[in-house]
Inverse folding.
């Protein structure tokens, strides 16, 4: 099935967008003071992609580059890479599934800076691939200032990403992140050395990375691995294990087939102390 056909099917039957709209209507009914916010960012829009571009542009607006110019760039990025909308839906659904503090899809759509930072990166990455690298770098700078998240626009990120709390998340130029990954605040996916080569981590599918963990160099973190909070990872991590410590070492199995979905970090502490 072509990407355009998949996108058309999502547009015709779009449970994520329906959940955002339904939540927006409930907020308007219960908190009239937010009516303008909800209509401007959700209810006045025909679909998910249009509303997403509007919300992000409003948050990234600055006298240097207006929200209107950002929206135009986002439209061009969406035309070049229409799967952005599908990936963003997967991110929102993943956050709703994994974050017990999130009760309505519209709250993530409007307020969660981790979600906003990842979506800004998706548009910046598309612009980077289109050759609009200067605009992509500008978006990286604005996202860093507004959301406290610094992702190089060349980095490649999969779908179903939950960036929890988000503050201080840093991703280098040649890093890659697989699908269905959960990452907490303060995480760094950093490089080693200063040569222009492949120098950043490769994070597999289903990985859970705890708060303030640091992963350095062109190393692979295997699928469904778990990295403990505050760890410094400088060696390859096999699939389906837990690593923790400074430097990180294997302390056991991952404890679950899907660490990113379960979000169990306490077991890492118990493994280290027990």
């Amino acid at each position: 099935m072509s990407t355009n056909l998949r996108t058309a099917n999502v547009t015709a039957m779009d449970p994520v967008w329906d959940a955002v709209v339904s939540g927006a209507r409930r907020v308007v009914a219960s908190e009239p003071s937010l009516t303008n916010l909800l209509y401007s960012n959700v209810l006045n829009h025909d679909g998910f992609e249009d509303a997403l571009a509007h919300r992000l542009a409003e948050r990234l607006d600055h006298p240097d580059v207006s929200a209107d110019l950002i929206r135009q760039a986002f439209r061009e990025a969406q035309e070049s890479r229409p799967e952005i909308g599908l990936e963003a839906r997967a991110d929102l659904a993943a956050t709703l599934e994994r974050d017990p503090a999130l009760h309505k899809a519209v709250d993530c759509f409007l307020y969660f800076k981790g979600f906003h930072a990842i979506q800004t990166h998706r548009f910046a990455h598309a612009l980077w691939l289109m050759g609009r690298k200067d605009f992509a770098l500008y978006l990286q700078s604005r996202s860093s200032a507004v959301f406290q998240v610094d992702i190089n626009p060349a980095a490649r990120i999969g779908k179903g990403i939950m960036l929890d709390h988000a503050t201080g998340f840093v991703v280098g130029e040649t890093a890659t992140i697989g699908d269905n990954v959960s990452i907490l605040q303060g995480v760094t996916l950093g490089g080693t050395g200063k040569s222009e080569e492949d120098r950043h981590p490769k994070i597999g599918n289903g990985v859970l990375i705890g708060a303030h963990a640091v992963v350095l160099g062109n190393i692979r973190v295997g699928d469904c691995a778990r990295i403990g909070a505050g760890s410094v990872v400088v060696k390859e991590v096999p699939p389906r294990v837990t690593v923790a410590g400074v430097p990180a070492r294997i302390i056991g199995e991952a404890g679950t087939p899907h660490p990113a979905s379960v979000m169990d970090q306490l077991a890492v502490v118990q493994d280290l102390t027990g």
